[in-house]
Amino acid sequence: MGLQAGIVGLPNVGKSTLFNAVSNSAKAQASNYRFCTIEPNMGLVDVPDDRLHKLSELVKPNKIVPTQIELVDIAGLVKGASKGEGLGNKFLANIREVDAIVHVIRCFEDENILRDEGAINPVSDKEIIDTELQLKDLESVEKKYSRSEKLAKTGDAKVKAEFDVLRRCKEHLEQGKSIRSLDLSKEDKAAIADLFLLTDKPVLYVANVDEPSMHTGNKYSEALKAAVAAENAQVIVMNNSIEAQISEMEEPADRELFMEEYKMKEPALNKLIRSTYKLLNLATYFTAGVQEVRAWTIHEGWKAPQAASVIHTDFEKGFIKAEVIAYNDFVQYGSEAAARENGKLRIEGKEYIVKDGDVMHFRFNV
User: Fold this and answer.
1) Based on the number of CB atoms within 10 Å of its own CB, is 222 exposed (0-12), middle (13-18) or buried (19 or more)?
2) Closest listed residue to residue 105, CA positions, set 19, 206, 31
3) What pLDDT does residue 76 have?
């Protein structure tokens, strides 16, 4: 699918520590000095899904293949980045290339970790990032606004409509608001798609708390939740250092013992990864056979031929039909054969919208 979520935040808030914890294909350098991360680190992350393992227990395949998303660890931003301060231009260019934002915010006190922004203040930290992204977006919008303003006077309906969208975006940004909070239609978004606006990207927040607060949160994480309540954005409370320690343990028994000690049912990372997957508007369907049980990533709302294309483009070109069993039906009856016998295997055509969790087999002819 090629979709990416960028991990962003001020310097020394725990971004690279988080990246190290979630990435199973790369390790970022995590050090206590500014701009430790200069070039963005990229890593593929397995998406935890209990359904995949349940299907595997029933089918007993030779191989299990989870679906993945790509996370990008982006250099820490400082105030003034929109004007090129620090690594501002590189930082903003890297954000422009990702599809969603995971914003890590420091919600703990530690005098040994450098901080130039003064006392711990997660709300202020969030606003610094927001302001820099909004200023950069305003710069982009104003350039196109100036060009469209002259063309709009010609009376062309399409140009006038585009200019109106730009005007609304400009006014919204000037009020210190992000584009994602502006009520734009699908057609409106198409008018500004070429700008790749930073504040139009979906976002979730990670409140990086101290160890005693990892289950309950603290005054800082609560302040952050209150600040983003109007955004309808998710806040995940976690201790990045603990998560990094768990990820470094190779033996499952060691991980279980460690989590038991910290009263954890699962790593908080699992919730973060699943939430990021949903943030990217992704869904999963499964193929289940003796050779492998595999999870496949699609966009929510995709029809069966599109879903088939992620296996191979020929599957979409020569699509005939899809054999579909709902996940719950597959588990209830224990096998494809039993589901078929009980009338739970459906034949679906080109207009079928794939549901998250469908177990599918495609018929095609090329």
Assistant:
1) middle
2) 206
3) 64
Total residue length of the chain: 366
Specify the residue for token string 């209990």.
50
Strand 203-209 with 100-107, pairing: parallel
Q: Which of 18-27, 157-166, 236-245, 277-286 has the lowest mean pLDDT?
A: 18-27
What is the band of 20 on the pLDDT scale with cuts at 50, 70, 90? confident
Please measure the distance between the N-terminal and C-terminal CA atoms of the chain and give it in whole angstroms.
23
**Checking DSSP bridges between strand 41-46 and strand 68-73, what pairing results, if any?**
antiparallel
Tell the residue number behind the tokens 């393992």, with chain if given.
53
Q: pLDDT tens-digit profile of 75-93?
A: 666 565 456 554 445 667 8
Distance CA 366, CA 361 (A): 16
Q: Phi and psi of 190, rounded to 5°?
A: -65, -30
**Is pLDDT above 80 for 32?**
no
CB 182 within 8 A of CB 212: no
Q: Which two tokens stand for residue 97?
A: 């290339």
209 vs 237: CA distance, rounded Å: 7
Mean pLDDT over each residue of the chain, to the nearest integer: 87
Beta bridge partner(s), residue 103: 8, 205
Other beta carbons within 10 angstroms of residue 30's beta carbon come to 20
Calculate the CA 356 to chain-centre distance: 17
Which of the four pLDDT bands, split at 50, 70 and 90, describes residue 114? low
Rg (CA), the chain: 23
Q: How confident is the model at residue 153 (pLDDT cuts 50, 70, 90)?
A: confident
Query: How far is CA 317 from its chain centroid?
Result: 30
Q: How far is CA 194 from CA 80, 96, 158, 164, 321, in A?
A: 24, 11, 16, 16, 36
Q: Is the pTM of this model over 0.90?
A: no
Contact assessment for residue 284 and residue 266, using Cβ atoms and an 8 Å cutoff: no
- The answer to whether 7 and 201 are in contact (CB under 8 A) is no
Tokens 């502006």 correspond to 182
Q: Provide the b/e sequence for 147-170 (b: ≥16 CB within 10 Å).
A: ebeeebeeeeeebeebbebbebbb
Taking the C-alpha atoms of residue 95 and residue 40, their distance in angstroms, rounded to an integer, is 10
